[in-house]
Amino acid sequence: MTTFYCYSKCSTCKKAEKWLKEQQISYNKIDLVEQPPTKAQMLDFFAKSDQNLRYFFNTSGIDYRKMKLKDKIDTMSKEQAAELMSQNGKLIKRPLMVDDTKVTCGFNTAVYEKNWL
After folding, report:
1. Which residues contact 79 (CB under 8 A, 6 or more apart)?
2. Tally of domains within the chain
């Protein structure tokens, strides 16, 4: 089953969810802020992706900037990143869409068409 992690106040998440419904794609919706993925889940998501850690971070988010993660991310281990993200879902780029074999962050129609249709 595909899982769609989102934040209810995020306009990008709303666009992605609208697209998913238009395509009649089934998914399990989870609020990223209320119920962030666990550390183990984040490590699994990293393993399913060929992207670097920065791809998973909400680099325009307030918490990301407050924590000055821009200066720390390049030396951060996957375990450290997963721990941070599991404690604060607002650090994760949204929406986060995952299934058994793949993961995408953010919403781009072309990327969704390639991965989720």
Report:
1. 39, 43
2. 1
* CATH code, domain carrying 69: 3.40.30.10
* Domain extent for 29: 3-116
Q: What are phi and psi of 34, to 5 degrees?
A: -75, -35
| Three-state DSSP state, 96 | strand
100: its two tokens = 């058994």
In 41-91 the beta strands, taken as DSSP E runs, fall at none
Tens digit of pLDDT for each residue in 25-66?
999 999 999 999 999 999 999 999 999 999 999 999 999 999
Give the alpha-carbon dihedral of 80, 69, 17, 39, to 10 degrees.
Answer: 10
- How many DSSP H helices and E strands does the chain contain? 5, 4
- Tell me the pTM: 0.92
Task: Write the Ramachandran bin of 103: left for phi over 0, alpha for psi from -120 to 50, otherwise beta.
Answer: beta
CA distance 85 to 32: 10
* Total Cβ atoms within 10 A of residue 39: 18
Task: Output DSSP code: residue 101.
Answer: S
